[in-house]
Amino acid sequence: MTAALTGLGYQRWALDAILLLPLLGAVLVLLSPPAAAKRLALYVTLAEFVVSLGLWWTFQPTAAMQFQVVRQWIPEWGIGYRLGVDGISLFLLLLTTLTMPLAVLGSWSYITRHERPYYALLLVLTTGMLGVFVALDLFVFYVFWEIMLIPMYFIIGVWGGPSRLYAAIKFFVYTFLGSLLMLVAILTIYFAVARATGESSFAYDHLWRNIGYVRPWAFWLFAAFALAFAIKVPMFPFHTWLPDAHVEAPTAGSVILAGILLKMGTYGFLRFAVPLFPEIAMDPVVTGVVVGLSLIGIIYGALVSLVQPDFKKLVAYSSVSHLGFVMLGIWALTLQSVQGAIVIMINHGISTGALFFLAGMMYERRHTRDIAEFGGLAKVMPAFAAVLTVVSLSSIGLPGTNGFVGEFLVLIGAFRTHPWAAGVAATGVIFAAWYLLWAIQRLLFQKVDKPENAKLPDLSPRELAVLAPLLACIVWIGIYPAPILRRIEPSARALVTQVREAAGAPPVADVAMQPGAR
Amino acid sequence: MPLDLTTPGGITLALTPELVLTVWVLVLMLVAAWRHRDAGVQREVGLLTVIGLVSTGLAVAWLWAQGATPVGLPAMMALDGFRFATSLVFLLGALLTVMLSLGYVDRERIQAPEYYVLILLGTLGMMFMAGAADLVVMFLGLELMSVAVYVLAGVNRRSVFAAEAALKYFLLGAFASGFFLYGIALVYGATGTTNLWLIHGRVLELGLGSNVMMIAGIGLLLIGFGFKVAAVPFHMWTPDVYDGSPTPVTAFMAAAVKAAGFAALVRVLHQAFDGLPIWHGAVWWLAVITMVVGNVIALAQRPLKRMLAYSSIAHAGYLLVAVASGSAIGSAAFLFYAVVYTLMTIGAFAVLAAAGTGGEQGVLIDDLNGLATRRPWIAAAMTVFMLSLLGFPGTAGFIGKWYILSAAVDADQRLLAVILVGASVVSAGFYLPPIMAMYMRPAPSAEAHQATRIVGAARWAVGVMAVALLLFGFWPNRALDAARRGGESLRPATLYTLGR
Fold first, then answer.
1. Is residue B39 included in any domain, yes or no?
2. In the 3-class helix/strand/coil scheme, how is A395-458 assigned residue by residue?
3. Which of A336, A411, B4, B160 has a CA-to-CA distance to A441 between 20 and 30 Å?
4. A71 forms bridges with which residues in the sheet?
């Protein structure tokens, strides 16, 4: 497979094709007859997934940037169209291309008006999200980072729930606020480096190599980056946009928000904030604040989930909790914890994505998401119940499902550097079991006490087709994560080593137990 | 092409664009006066105006392409890239205004062919103002522009609001001119000259940095400019004047008149007073107050026209950030942003003109509800204008804002940059509601927006503006290059000092 793809020159055109295909698809969808829009969108996203799958085989498990694309864009300012993939971004890319066809399928009967613009926006959004994960030029990164706000803003605002306008503008303004400060930080770095080196360039590696020249303002620059990413993650005090946006968005919108958009925040920390400013990121006070906020997020998100009467809101708040684990994993900065953080990012996309799909399926049947309105669904919809149970267990982190692998790695890794934090975080897993199992109990088991629920149809083949790939991933990553970990490892190791060296922190030896390594 | 401005041939060549435009003004004034007045003649005059503006633009481009530079000291008119670039901006603004007006004056039954002549006269004034190498020429240009625009504001004689706008604009404008003139007098008193190059030389030579007369002169000039560009706290006239004037005139004022005020301000500060630290602080504060007040008050505006009026105040604040940097990058950023600002502001006013009648004062943002389903193209264009005004990536507004931020960061004014982005976040609060109204709210009735249409030349203008904004958002290279050349040409010549 690798040889065949290399023969096609896949490494040279892969990223160009992946970014261009959805855009072309969006144009086609807009021009197509309305009835064909969703089918066309499905074909495009499937083609996109197939094309991106080549990355899996051709990716070399080294820390180097691969599939690089370098082109001039605005030479006047040293801006180039620079793209590349490494072990950190590879799986976020694949997760995105996997999610998009499912999102299209999941919107099949949910979206009934303005179908063409809807699917076109989904496709534009795809390019925007993928661009964020592959950009290696800070200008390009910023453009992608902002541009994907627009399709999401419209998806929430036009096709969302009753208070969609409020949710849309809140989502927009929050993200915009954070990212504009990042813009000033990017410019500050650019000018400082350009003056010191005489080379004006927004190329990430150029800025990274010369980042020492911005030391006087490093704290503020880090803070600007961190704020932009923390809002996106979202970390604890900045999370208030999330429940609104997730709940009001149409099903596919929630899936994409939770599955992919939130990962941009954590990805930003891994790619930019931490490697660019290692000594600030590893400063004891900053570490204390971030780890503290992550723990608050883990516990607070779980507690708030516990009391949600609305199933979709419950899932939304559980994201705050899961992303807290990711942040803890990044800041623990050991090989295992960083690997674990990346794996949780993937898992969360799969499990929470599936939960949002399931919530949407419930809503399409009953037009309510109130947990109290359901009960005894296991008798009425056995397949639905089985899937929901498996997905919930994966979200809780039951051994044998994907959720376990990520959380376990993060806890192991974090225990070596922040044992107390790891201990507190572990209780988050207990809370997760509490709110999800309790919700399942109220939804699926007990008696069918509402007559409306007695005749609900079980999952249709289309719905099964949406959920099956996610279920397969849940089991596969849960049982055999080695191929994934192997591809992540070199990049994660390089990151940990570089940051620790630059920050003057002692290296942490690898644990003997390497789950699935080598 | 070096031109000796002291010879008749040299000065004539150097003034080719202005002369071409003047000839057009005279011809059109005669056409309007002699021919019988009906809508047909008015349309003819309008079309001839378009040709006049384009031919003037070609003359400017020709001079620029020839690389015209002065031999020795520019006495009255500058001959540099900055003058050519700003002239093109004004001509673009005037051209777009005329294209909007063709249908608008018909619809509103504004019977006055001199309308177009006044636009040309105003543009001529702007070109003199921004190209002046001497404060007195600058003042003459300023007055020529202002008087033409006072009349334009009140050109709809049936509207009491237009009359109010014209009177208000005239009174406050005259007041501001007084400040400006007094400032010139004091600067002359301190330096003994009104030539910008010589002023710069004498300021350095005689060490006038802390001279009281000099400082007072600069302060008065700043106040005069502050009125013209509608910087807070000299903006009080703006909302009422913008609101009462016919919408194309408002667009002209918001885009071209403001750009002209800024062009002259940049020239005076960056050329004559370059290296004087005193004005930096004043402009810094002016920029901050203008950005904050403009954006915050715009948040509270429900009528679209007033919202756009305050938005133009806010943008004056952004442009002041470019001015405050005092560098060639700042001048270049100003030039680029002026082009972009012209496109997006006139575009937004064009959509407003289509959405209402009778001065469009009654058009609330909520009146756009559901426009996207009935008029998808107008809604799409408006979305581009709003996002560009917001400074969103993918539009030219972003590149422009990026350039201004670059200038600020380059000049180590990071706090100013942070305030600018903070203000931009606030502006999302009033640039997004029109988009939400158009796309996310239902139309109030099935008959809504039937009358909303953009016809004829205005349709072309709106299309070109929207496409240009997107194009410059992704491929700004050519425009950036031109802006950089224009900005760099503004470097003060330190040769012309007393002793040498």
1. yes
2. HHCCCCCHHHHHHHHHHHHHHHHCHHHHHHHHHHHHHHHHHHHHHHHHHHCCCCCCHHHHHCCC
3. A411
4. A81
From residue A369, alpha-carbon distances to A112, A313, A363, B367 in Å are 19, 9, 6, 34
The pair phi, psi for residue B274, each rounded to 5°, is -60, 135
- Within 8 A of B410 by CB-CB distance, chain A residues are 191
Q: Name which of A355, A171, A350, A348 is nearest A248 in CA terms.
A: A171
* Binding-face residues of B in 389-448 toward A, CB within 8 A: 392-394, 398, 402, 405-406, 409-410, 414, 417-418, 421-422, 424-425, 428-429, 432, 436, 439-441
CB proximity A157 to B under 8 Å: yes
Burial (CB count within 10 angstroms: exposed 0-12, middle 13-18, buried 19+), residue B277:
exposed
Tokens representing A165 are: 């306008």
Neighbours of A508 (CB within 10 A): 18
For B205, the domain range is 16-488
Look at A183 and B421 and tell me if their CB atoms are within 8 Å. Answer: yes
B3 is a domain residue:
no
Per-residue pLDDT tens over the stretch B272-323? 888 787 888 899 999 999 999 999 999 999 999 999 999 999 999 999 999 9
Number of domains in chain A: 1
Q: Which domain holds residue A340?
A: 287-510
**What is the tens place of the pLDDT at every residue in B159-171?**
888 899 999 999 9
CA A336: distance to chain centroid?
19
**Judged by CB atoms within 8 Å, which residues 189-218 of A form the interface with B?**
190-191, 217
Contact A184 B440 (CB under 8 A): no
Would you say residue B113 lies in a domain? yes
Set of chain B residues whose Cβ sits within 8 Å of the Cβ of A162: none
Question: B406 vs A184: CB contact, 8 Å cut-off?
Answer: no
A428, part of any domain: yes
CB spacing of B418 vs A187 below 8 angstroms? no
ipTM: 0.89
Q: What is the pLDDT of residues B388-447, one digit of tens each?
A: 999 999 899 999 999 999 999 888 888 999 999 999 989 998 999 999 889 888 888 877
The CA distance from A242 to the nearest CA of chain B, in Å, is: 19
- The predicted pLDDT at position A269 comes to 93
Tell me how far apart the alpha carbons of residues B290 and B439 are, in angstroms, rounded to a whole number: 31
Q: What is the pLDDT of residues B223-278, one digit of tens each?
A: 999 999 999 889 889 998 999 899 999 999 999 999 999 999 999 998 888 878 78
Which tens digits make up the pLDDT trace of A444-496? 888 888 888 888 888 888 999 999 999 999 999 999 999 999 999 999 999 99
Task: Give pLDDT, residue B494.
Answer: 54
Residues 6+ apart with CB under 8 A from B367: B304, B355, B356, B437
Question: Does residue A260 belong to any structural domain of this protein?
Answer: no
Question: What residues in chain A have per-residue pLDDT under 70?
Answer: 509-518
pLDDT at B188: 93
Q: Are B350 and B461 in contact (CB under 8 A)?
A: yes
Query: Chain A contacts of B428, Cβ < 8 Å?
Result: 169, 172-173, 176
Structural domains of chain B, count = 1
Calculate how close chain B gets to A281, using CA atoms only, in Å.
Answer: 22
User: What's the DSSP call for residue B368?
Assistant: G
| CB spacing of A173 vs B425 below 8 angstroms | yes
Q: Do A180 and B409 touch (CB under 8 A)?
A: no
Specify the pairing of strand B69-70 against strand B2-3. parallel
A180 in any annotated domain: no
* DSSP notation for B253-315: IIIIIHHHHHHHHHHIIIIISTT-THHHHHHHHHHHHHHHHHHHHHHT--BHHHHHHHHHHHH
What is the residue whose two structure tokens read 């709110």? Answer: A435
Q: Is residue B499 in some structural domain?
A: no
Q: Which of B387, B409, B429 sits opposite A187 (nearest CB)?
A: B409
Instruction: Give the 3-state secondary structure of residue A508.
Output: coil
Whether A244 is covered by a domain: the verdict is no
